[in-house]
Amino acid sequence: MASTSVSRVVPASPQEAWNLIGGFDALPDWLPYIPESTALEGGRVRRLTNPDGDVIIERLVDFNEAERHYSYAILEAPFPVGGYVSTLRVHTVPGRDDIAEVQWSGRFNPKGATEQEVVDLFTGIYADGLDALHQTLAA
């Protein structure tokens, strides 16, 4: 099983960052790669569409409001992986209440691609996503 993780300090308190990203159906609010999200099954599943029209279906597998994190599994996507589970987490920065560290991590089994290709793919997706989050919070 392969994995990757990207962290970024953002210009918002942990609660402000969580308020933006903590809703499982909130990706279009901060992630340009996902302009559309539809909540299904009472909000436990999200159907995402990217700008190319590709569909990604993900299931919420863990949610912790108090600790500010959630995990999800990909059910259907145009990515060369199986067994994908990812976590978005907001951390406090010791001694600071005006910034937060956001971590996006995932583990997965490559399918039809090398481990390095898939690690590079998701490292790029996470880094671009956290850059977009930073821009949204800085605006």
UniProtKB/TrEMBL annotation:
<dbReference type="Pfam" id="PF10604">
    <property type="entry name" value="Polyketide_cyc2"/>
</dbReference>
<dbReference type="InterPro" id="IPR023393">
    <property type="entry name" value="START-like_dom_sf"/>
</dbReference>
<dbReference type="InterPro" id="IPR019587">
    <property type="entry name" value="Polyketide_cyclase/dehydratase"/>
</dbReference>
<protein>
    <submittedName>
        <fullName>SRPBCC family protein</fullName>
    </submittedName>
</protein>
